[in-house]
Design brief:
- The radius of gyration is 22 Å and the shape is globular.
- Strands 5, 6, 12, 13, 14, 15, 16, 17 and 20 form a nine-stranded mixed beta sheet that branches. Strands 1, 2, 8, 9, 10, 11, 18 and 19 form an eight-stranded mixed beta sheet that branches. It has a three-stranded antiparallel beta sheet with strand order 3-7-4.
- The chain has 415 residues and is of the alpha+beta class.
- The chain contains 13 helices and 20 strands.
- Helices cover 38% and strands 31% of the residues.
- The chain has a single domain, classed as 3-Layer(bba) Sandwich (FAD/NAD(P)-binding domain), CATH 3.50.50.
- It binds flavin-adenine dinucleotide (FAD).
- The site of flavin-adenine dinucleotide has 37 residues, from helix 1, strand 3, strand 9, strand 12 and helix 10.
Amino acid sequence: MHTCTTDIAIVGGGLVGASLALALQPLARARGLKITLLESQPPQADSSTKKTWQPSFDARSSALSWGTRLIYEQLGLWDKLSSHAYPIEHIHVSDRGYWGSTQLDHREQGVDALGYVVPNAWLGETLWWGLQQAGENNTQVLAPAEIDQLSFPHPDQTELRGRLGDQELLVKSRLVVLADGGRSGLKQQLGIADTHYDYEQTALVANLRLSKPHQGWAYERFSEEGPMALLPLDGDQMALVWTRQGEEALMLADLPEEEFLARLQDSFGKRAGRFLQVGERFAYPLKKIRAKEQVRRNLVILGNAAHYLHPVAGQGYNLAIRGVTSLAADLEAAARQAEQEGKNFHPGDLAVLTAWQQRRLPDQDAVVGFSHSLIEIFARKQPLLGHARAAGLIGLNLFSPARRWLAKKAMGLEI
Ligand SMILES: Cc1cc2nc3c(=O)[nH]c(=O)nc-3n(C[C@H](O)[C@H](O)[C@H](O)COP(=O)(O)OP(=O)(O)OC[C@H]3O[C@@H](n4cnc5c(N)ncnc54)[C@H](O)[C@@H]3O)c2cc1C
């Protein structure tokens, strides 16, 4: 049996769990706290194998907002990440079958880029590198460590049980953070219910090669069957997120390459050039899920385990990382206050966690609501609504304050 005692145990070393372990470094260093990150998949930080942790760091790419770039700068990771972060300089938004369209431009917002597209595998490698830089003094990564039980035997302590490789594992911790993703079994074990909405849609994700360089353009094209996004990668490559009804998406995923490219071209048009090649295609069923409780004494739920949203606006991780940094900041503030008052700091203090969650809810409501309303508005089949949307997009194009508002939402700067 492998046993360890820690101050903060993070279950799940995906995008969110790994980001939290890094954001907690100043607190851990200043207060001598121990952080333990537990991930069920084996770590593989070797780029020559082209493999990193699954499923967070899979073949997808993520659009990171300008706000998330600022967070990566604070974490000291932006210099490394930026070598494979492709800037979104302009966004073209259109509605298939209608004339309206609008364009957002980074110059109008006074920033270098509206956001950046980063392959998830590179995000994973950068976060993993950051954890290695943090050293083992206060941060321990246990992988492959699968946690299957969580209990609260004492008011001040939690117990996690599972396996570390082929050994039994017991972790005693003062605070547990569940960052174990959208299918969090531990959350269910605790009886924490979700609100759940099934879009009955699937996102088809793949990388494409095009006949011309994208020059920093991203495209968001709405249609009654679902939205489609093309995001700039290296040179003439773009990341595709194509939302379709479940069965159609699976059929598209299995089509021979030429037929798939022809269907895609037909659906998207020629604005970005001709689609020449498509890489491996992956399918993600789309749901809106929110945990009804996100904190308890000695417990926090973060990331996909707390809120899983439609990727239409590319905001899932951007939202989660704001939760990550604000949690780290609130724990630091609570530790300082405890010191000033001559009290012991407990990272699982319910009052601190509840106050943090209350402050996070408006951001979560706004982002989940914004992503959901885009789907609702653009999925309606009434022709009149189609014209209204077109008029809306044309109006946005003419009216720069509205365009700036939309750009700020996309940049993760205005909630
Ligand atoms: C198609 C698609 C496109 C997207 N595009 C964007 C985008 O452009 N921009 C954006 O901001 N967001 C985007 N998102 C959202 C983003 O991918 C998620 O917000 C992010 O993956 C959440 O990460 P997570 O760490 O919470 O969960 P996950 O990625 O699911 O990671 C959970 C981790 O926990 C581990 N784990 C699970 N159970 C256990 C256990 N019992 N013990 C130990 N470890 C465990 C898993 O192995 C995994 O590594 C997109 C999502 C989809 C589906």
